[in-house]
Amino acid sequence: MTEELSPADAYAAFRRRAAEEAMALHPFREMYEFDLDPFQIEACKALESGKGVLVAAPTGSGKTIVGEFAVHLALLQGKKCFYTTPIKALSNQKYADLAKRYGAAKVGLLTGDNSVNADAPVVVMTTEVLRNMLYAKSPALTGLGYVVMDEVHYLSDRFRGAVWEEVIIHLPESVTLVSLSATVSNAEEFGDWLDTVRGDTEVIVSEERPVPLWQHVMAGRRIHDLFEEESDHGGRGSARREVNPDLLRMAREENTRSYSPKDRRRGKMVREADRERERRSRNRIWTPGRPEVIERLDNEGLLPAITFIFSRAGCEAAVQQCLHAGLRLNDDAKRARVREIVEERTASIPTEDLHVLGYYEWLEGLERGIAAHHAGMLPTFKEVVEELFVRGLVKAVFATETLALGINMPARTVILEKLVKWNGEQHADITPGEYTQLTGRAGRRGIDVEGHAVVLWQRAMDPAALAGLAGTRTYPLRSSFKPSYNMAVNLVQMFGRHRSRELLETSFAQFQADRSVVGISKQVQRNEEGLEGYTEGMTCHLGDFEEYAQLRRDLKDRETDLAKQGASQRRAQAAGSLEKLKPGDIIHVPTGKFAGLALVLDPGVPAGRSNGHRGQEYTEGPRPLVLTAERQVKRLAAIDFPVPVEPIERMRIPKSFNARSPQSRRDLASQLRVKAGHIAPERSRRGRAEAADDREIARLRAALRAHPCHGCDEREDHARWAERYHRLKRDTQQLERRIEGRTNTIARTFDRIHALLTELDYLREDEVTAHGRRLARLYGELDLLASECLRAGIWEGLSPAELAACVSALVFEARQSDDAVAPKVPAGAASVALAEMVRIWGRLDALEEEHRINQAEGVGQREPDLGFAWAVYQWASDKSLDEVLREAGMPAGDFVRWCKQVIDVLGQVAAAAPANSGGGTSTVARNARKAVDALLRGVVAYSSVG
Questions:
Q1: Among 583, 587, 603, 585, which Cα is nearest to 595's?
Q2: N or C: which end of the chain has fewer CB within 10 A?
Q3: Which of 556, 772, 791, 588 has the alpha carbon at shortest distance from 679?
Q4: Which residues 6+ apart lie within 8 Å of 750 measured at CB?
Q5: Which of 488, 441, 511 is nearest to 192 (CA)?
Q6: What is the pTM of this model?
């Protein structure tokens, strides 16, 4: 019998229900078939109240619900929401989920490979794309209300983690940030930093798995619990978990019979007898084979399962072992469904490529419910495996650890073959964080009552150490932030040197290195605001101190106005010169993407009148339509003409000229080069500065010197304010010296980078030079090397395939270095250019050493790797996939991934390359675009989205 509420309590309950129903969270919750967990509700409420949120929760717990609520709020409020992910596959997956929920018209996708509906109110993108948008001040940022950073713990990644911090620091203050992280032990510290740089941020930590996880060890035919049966298997309570004594006894028995070097001196018969006794005593503790493990789990009802093997070859071998063992996990109906899905998803792959890609062996495994998943596979193949696994049509997947990074592919059971992996330098034990990430895949919410993590018994296994791994549920988040050359020029371009340094002081890396520096930096900023207030409050009995300060402001304003007037006059003169242009005039476009020789086809239309070009109204003066010497027909804008332009020659435009015809453009451009290619452009001359002769400036300077407060020695009325001003100024300078004296490694590294870039004429204090602006458009590990190659013109005259080979050296890194064998490279011009790239790198390396820029600390330019040059050259030269992969000795997935990275950098090179080189027309930009087209074919062009 329910207790009847009093009228007051009933009314209060009614008010609470009404308040909840009025929130945006109420209709959002009704969109899901299940009720939200307390941590999800708490985070959503904080988000709706206007706070940023950091949600740290285990894998599979439903953190993304909070991100989806940010999408819901953005659409409700008429704002934009950007949903960022660390990897393209996760972006594709999230795009599909959101498009299904909100409709394809409201959701877009931006990755290095795809651009779908980029102007939609909700756009899913990789984090690098958002970073680039922020530096470019993209108009797409207008109206941005929310940014969701999924897998934000990725900022600890030593190669790409800095991008996450760049985004967090540079996002406009008006944007609400939603950070979704795995469970980390220092979530509060990370939340404190977010609170410092982003404002009010609520930290919500949930360590409770939605599906309890049971830990096991499989030895021989038996599956043992890692912890004693009466203890807390799920890890939800506070009970102390004791290691299973059976496992400890097995480890002791194995250790007592471990091999000794003394055995070599014993007789063969004695050794054989010992081994037989050992086999009998250890009949329960051998390491089971892969087919045996899957078969046992199938019998126990523990499939689907993901087996993590820290080797691509091991994953492929595991599938073959299961096939040879006759393992079949699918019935005939499921086999037919698998074949139907696979054939549909791979229909775009040419038949001749299927054999090269190992399609038929791969399909046989899929039909039996068995597959591999690793970075060496073709992306299309990986996506098919993921889809079939989620559908329950593949029940055993052998994967490398890359599968643990965000892809929504949960299993009932996760198997770890070994607790040791190659970290790129040596074989090392996996960390508690890695163990948590891998086993986090076990247990499907809404499907499984419990998840299972199974570690296979290995010789010399220490069950207590394994229990320590399994018992450490969290790991600390460590910043990997380091300034780069590209970051330096972009920061200086946006904020100037001093402000850039202050921004770097607020990075999470600096926050962790010395938390007090962030607080001191904020205090300096508050003091500077206070100084402005004290200046306004100053008074003096000899005169008006505010008047004195106003004179200084008037002087500065007058100088600024004169500078603006000069710029305005130059723009007006430039617009006037454009209005005088006629069809057939040959001009030199002074700046912009299409700078250089050009033929006027149409002078444009005066301000306010439509010229019929896409129905646009031009209110900023004429926009001449020109043919460039590079055979491009483009309509230019006022921004391309900062100074007046005069015709240098005239030529007749044939009546038969057709701007849409490549041949017609080619012929006329050739005539243009012959007619005026030898004429050098006139340099614009700057006249005497107007400020030097301005009477008002002279009057203000005289008034400033004659003001009573200028030499005041009696400060009875204003001394208190003046003293406070000087005291605060002195305190501020002391704080700045304290900041300088601390181990502020980030800012010091920035100073060294700034000095090097200044020496190379990329920066001049707060000014970014033309070379610097080019560097600002080049992202990547070898950004400065790429810029220096463009500057030196070593890629001029290369064919598209040769240029692709050279650019590959900027991105490729061999998985295992082989210094004994020189990589094969294309002969001729490409070989010369690659050798010159290595020489330029050597010069930069010496310069970095001189400026104490250390590659070991993650800053600087590594040596270019020529190992992919031949493969990408062959592919760009239209060779078959079979021939390219056979000569490269490279898996298809690796080949595709490297090709796409080369394509990405070629796009950057095309955008950054100068229009002219050495007085002639540059070929780099044009050939970079041609190289992209040549590479985007066959397996490289396959895409699952768009």
A1: 587
A2: N
A3: 588
A4: 483, 488, 500, 501, 504
A5: 511
A6: 0.66
